[in-house]
Amino acid sequence: MDWFPLYNSLRVASISTFFTFFLGIFAAHYIAKTPRIIKGVLDGILTLPLVLPPTVIGFFLLKTIGPLGPVGSGVLEVFGFKLTMTWYSAIFATTIISFPLMYRTARGAFESFDSTLLYSGQTLGLSNTFLFWRVIMPNCKQGILAGAVLSFARALGEFGATTMVAGYIPGRTAIISTTVYQLWREGNDALAYKWVFVNLVISFIVLAAVNMFENRYKQPVGAAKNHFDHED
Amino acid sequence: MSVYVKIKKSFGNFVLDTEFEAENVILALLGASGSGKSMTLKCIAGIVRPDKGRIVVDGVTLFDSEKKINLSPQERHVGLLFQNYALFPNMTVEQNLYTVLKKRSGAKNLQDQLNLLLESFYLTGLEKHYPGQLSGGQQQRVALARIMASDPRIIMLDEPLSALDSYLRWQVEKELTDILGKYKGTTLYVSHNRDEVYRICQKVCVINDGRSEKVSSIVEFFNAPPTLASALLSGCKNYSKIEKLSNDRVYAVDWKTDLKCSAHIPDDAGYIGVRAHRILPIGSKDECLNKISCRVLEVRHDLFSVIVTVVPADADPRKEFSQIRMEMPSLEDDPLRPGDSMTINIPPEMIMPLRKRMS
C-alpha cells in the first residue's frame, strides 16, 4: 500500500489549518469591533464557503488561479509555475472551505470573552497587543483550539473543490478522499476499504479532540467566585 | 490629586449629563441602578467616549471635546475597580500584580515592590493562587493592589461591595476603608447604598436619571438633602407636596395639614420630607406643634423595631404620598392594629424642605 495520499492529506490539511488559524482569528477579532451593518455584510461573505457547494468554490478558484485566470496567468508569467494541478493547489481550496469554521468558532469565543478584563488591563496601562496575546487569547484558548481542530478535519475531508483545482495524480496530488473515489471507480474495493478505515480512524481522533476542547471550554476558567471560602 | 468632570453623552432616550469636582476626598457617586454612575466612571477611564465635555485629572486634560483631546485608557493613569474585579483568570495573584508593576517601573527592585504590595494588601501566602481560588474579599484586595501597582492619579470604585455576600461585606468594607484611608488621593466611589456611602465617603454627588446634582458633604446630604431625588436616595421615607405659606409655615397638600418648619423654606421648594424615625407618637390630648391625627393602615414588625404606616384623618389614603411611615422601637404593651386611631407629632426641626430639581 502506497501511503502517499495519507502523507499528502495531512500535509495539505496542516498547512491550510495554519493559514485559517491566523486568518480566522484576525478576521474574528477585527470584525467583532466593526459597526453592525458592516459586520453583517462581512460576516455573510466570510461564512459563504460554509454553505456554497464546494464545486462552486472550485469553479471560482479555477477561474482565478487557473492558467487562464488573472492570478494564475500572472504567476505563470512572472514566476514560471502553475497554481493548479499541483500538490499545493489543494491548499487554496481547503483554506477557503475550512475558513468559516475557524472564523465562526473564534468569533464565538471572542464574543463570550468578558470585556471588563480588556478594559481593566487598558486602565492599568497594559498595551493592547500585550492584552490580546496574554489575556484575550489564553482565556479564549479552548474555543480557538476547537475551531482549529474543526478546520483541520474539514480540510482533511475536502473533496469537491480539491479535485477541481488539484485533480487526482497518483503520487503527486492524490489525497485520501480523492483516492477512495478513484479506487471505487476502478473497482478496487479491497484497497478502498483500507483507506476508508484510515479515514474513520482520523475522524474519530479529531472528534475526540473537539469534544475534549469543547468540554473544557464550557467551564469558564477561574470565573467562579467562591463566596463561601473563608477569609484568609 | 484632583478631578474635574463635565460630560454629556446620549444613548437613545437616556442622556448622561454630569458635572462634579473633587480633591483629595472620597467622593460618592450615589444613584439608583441605571442612573449613569458606572457610565460616568467608564467615561473618565476612557472606555466610553463622551459626546461633549471635559475631563481633567491633576491638571492633565484627559478629554476635551472642543480641543479634540481624547487620551487612550493607557495614557490616563486612572485606576478603575470593576464590580467583578476583572482579575486576569489565567494568571496567578503574583502574575496579575507583576505584569502591572513591570509596566510601570521597568526592572528595578520588582521583587521588593511585589512583596511590599502583597504585604500591605494582606495577600502574603496567596501569591501562587489563581483568582478563581480566592474568596470575593481576597479578589477585591488583589484588584486594589493591582490598581495601586499602576500608580494611578485617582482611583475609582464601581460598586465594590455589591458582589459580596452580606456576611462577608462588613469585614471587606472594613478592609476597604483602611486601604482607602491610607491612600491620600482622590477616590470616586460609585454606590446605590446610602449606609455604605455614609460610612465610607466624605462627600457625595447624587446622580439622578443621568443628571448630577451639586456635590455636598455627607453630613449636609443626610441632614438636609436639597432635592426630592437626594432625599429619596438618602433614605427618607415620607414626602408631601407643599404650598408655601410663609418662611416657616407650609401647607402639606398630601397630608392636608399646616406645618411649622424650623428650616428656612426656599421659594422653589416643592416638597417636604420627614424621616421615618423622626416622627413621634403622642397622646391625643398632648399639646404640641404639628400634631396630626391619623388612622393606622399597616403595622409591620421588624427585628428590633416596628414600622407603622398611618394616613392623616383628612387625607386620601390611596395617594402614594399621603401615607406616613414611622419607625419606632418595638412596643411591648398594647400592640397597634390597622384601623386604630393614632396621633402623631412631626417636630418642626425634623422637616426638610426639598426642591424639585437642582436649579
Can you describe this structure?
The complex is a heterodimer of chains A (232) and B (359). Chain A is mainly α. Chain A contains eleven helices and no strands. Chain A has helices at residues 4-31, 36-51, 54-65, 70-78, 89-111, 115-123, 128-139, 141-157, 160-166, 176-186, 189-218. The longest helix of chain A is centred in the last third of the chain and has 30 residues, at 189-218. Chain A starts with a helix and ends in a 14-residue tail after the last helix. In chain A, 40% of the residues are buried. Residues 219-232 of chain A have low confidence and may be disordered. In chain B, the strands form four sheets. In chain B, strands 3, 7, 8, 9, 10, 11 and 12 form a seven-stranded mixed β-sheet that branches. Chain B has a five-stranded antiparallel β-sheet with strand order 2-1-4-5-6, with helices on one face. Chain B is elongated. In chain B, a hairpin with a 4-residue loop joins strand 14 (249-252) and strand 15 (257-260). The model of chain B has no long low-confidence stretch (mean pLDDT 89). Chain B has 359 residues and is of the alpha+beta class. In chain B, helix 5 runs parallel beside helix 6 (166-182). Helix content of chain B is 24%, strand content 34%. The interface between A and B is large, with 30 and 44 residues.
Question: How is this fold's topology laid out?
Answer:
The complex is a heterodimer of chains A (232) and B (359).
Chain A: H1 4-31, H2 36-51, H3 54-65, H4 70-78, H5 89-111, H6 115-123, H7 128-139, H8 141-157, H9 160-166, H10 176-186, H11 189-218
Helix pairs in contact in A: 1-5, 1-8, 2-5, 3-5, 3-9, 5-8, 5-9, 6-7, 8-11, 10-11
Chain B: E1 2-11, E2 14-23, E3 26-30, H1 37-45, E4 52-57, E5 60-64, E6 69-70, H2 73-76, E7 78-81, H3 93-105, H4 110-120, H5 136-149, E8 154-158, H6 166-182, E9 186-191, H7 194-200, E10 203-208, E11 211-212, E12 216-217, H8 218-223, H9 228-233, E13 238-246, E14 249-252, E15 257-260, E16 269-274, E17 280-282, E18 291-301, E19 305-312, E20 324-329, E21 341-345, E22 352-355
Parallel strand pairs in B: 3-9, 3-10, 7-8, 8-9
Antiparallel strand pairs in B: 1-2, 1-4, 4-5, 5-6, 10-11, 10-12, 13-14, 13-16, 14-15, 16-22, 17-21, 18-19, 18-21, 19-20
Helix pairs in contact in B: 3-4, 3-5, 5-6
